[in-house]
Amino acid sequence: MRPRSRCPRCAAPIGAGDNVPILSWILLRGRCRHCHQPVAWRYPAVEIATAALFLLSFLRFGLTITGIGMATLCCLLLGLAVMDAETMKLPDAFTWPGMVLGILYSGISLGVFRLFPGAFEPLELISGIRISGHGSRFAATVRLTAAGLAVSALWALLAALLLLLIRWLYFLVRHQQGLGIGDVKLIAMIAAWLGPAPAILTLLLGCLAAALFGIASVVASRGKRPFRTTRLPLGSFLCAAAIYTIFAGQIVIDWYLRFYRLR
Ligand SMILES: [Zn+2]
After folding, report:
1. Which of 102, 108, 111, 113 could cross-link 66 (Cys pair, CB 3.0–4.6 Å)?
2. Which one-letter DSSP state was computed for residue 52?
3. How far does residue 10's CA lie from ligand 1's centre (Å)?
4. Residue 258, CB half-sphere, CA atoms under 13 Å: how many?
5. Distance, CA 11 to ligand 1 centroid (Å)?
6. Are 155 and 192 in contact (CB under 8 A)?
7. Residue 18, helix vs strand vs coil
8. How many angstroms separate the alpha carbon of residue 188 from the centre of ligand 1?
9. Within 13 Å and on the Cβ side, how many CA atoms surround 140?
10. How far does the centroid of ligand 1 lie from the alpha carbon of residue 15, in Å?
11. Higher pLDDT, 223 or 245
C-alpha cells in the first residue's frame, strides 16, 4: 500500500527491518527509531490478534482453501474493525477488494460448502450438483465455479439492498442518516464470503452487541452522552460478530433452524 509505512509522529519512513510484526516493536522497545517517541501499543496488539486468528483458522479448517480463505477474511475484518473504532470509517480500499475476494473464494472453494452446508443449498439447486457426492470432481469444480461466483455476487447484492432498505427506513423516520454506507458495503462483503445465513447472523449479533454497548455507554456517561444521538462504530461490532460467526456460527444457525424442523 502507498504511501509506505511511516511514523505518525515524525513522519520518518519505517525501514523494512523495523517493520517486522511484533518483533520490531519489542526490539525498538515500543519507540520510533528516529524521534524516539512511543509507538502505540495498538500496532503490536493488532499484529498479535492477526496471528491468533490465523492460528485459529488453521486449527479449525486445516491447510485447506477454506482455512486460507477464512484467515484472509479474518485479516480484512480485524483491519476494518480497528479502523472503524478509530476513525468511524470503513475504507473502500478494504471493502471493495474484500467483496471481490469473497466472490472469487466462493467461486473456487468447495470447502466452503462443508463450512456452511445449508447456506449453499440454493447453489445445489441451481447447478444441479450435489456437493457432497463423489463422481467427476473436475467437472463439478468447473461447473461450480461459474455458479459459485454468480450466487456469491447475488448474496452480496441482496445483503446490500437489505441494508440500504434499513438505512432508507431510518432516514424516513428520523430525518437523519443512522447507518453509514460503509456498513452496507461491509455486510455485502461478509455475504459474498459466507453466504446468506451467516451474514444474517452477523447482522443480528453485531447490532445486538452495538445496542448493548451503546446503552451501557450512555448510562455510564450519566447524562453527558445523549441517548438519541450517540454515534457508534457499528462496523467494528459487525466485524467482531462476523469473526464469531466464522468459527461458531454454524452451531447457532443449526440450533435456530431446528425450531423450524429444517435440520
Ligand atoms: Zn518517529
Report:
1. 111
2. H
3. 4
4. 6
5. 6
6. yes
7. helix
8. 38
9. 14
10. 12
11. 245
C-alpha distances (whole Å) from 229 to each of 19, 60, 169, 214 are 40, 40, 17, 10
Helix (H) or strand (E) holding 192: helix 181-194
Q: Where are the domains of the chain?
A: 34-258
Q: Which residues contact 109 (CB under 8 A, 6 or more apart)?
A: 65, 66, 69, 148
The DSSP call for residue 224 is S
Q: How far apart are CA 82 and CA 235, in angstroms?
A: 9
Of all residues in the chain, the percent with pLDDT exceeding 90 is 51
Q: Which residues 6+ apart lie within 8 Å of 86 measured at CB? A: none
Average pLDDT, the chain: 84
CA of 1 to the centre of ligand 1 (A): 20
Structure confidence at residue 218 (pLDDT): 87
What span, in angstroms and rounded, lies between the C-alpha atoms of 238 and 207?
7
Asked whether residue 118 carries a pLDDT value surpassing 60, the answer given is no
Q: Give me ligand 1 centre to Cα 86, in Å.
A: 20
C-alpha of residue 29 to centroid of ligand 1, in Å? 13
- CA distance linking residue 175 with residue 173, whole number of Å: 6
DSSP 76-144: HHHHHHHHHHHHS---HHHHHHHHHHHHHHHHH-SHHHHHSGGGGHHHHHHH---TT--S-HHHHHHHH
Exposed / middle / buried, residue 242 (Cβ in 10 Å: 0-12, 13-18, 19+): buried
Q: What is this structure's pTM?
A: 0.82
First to last CA, the chain: 45
pLDDT in tens, 7-50: 888 988 888 888 899 999 999 999 999 999 998 899 999 999 99
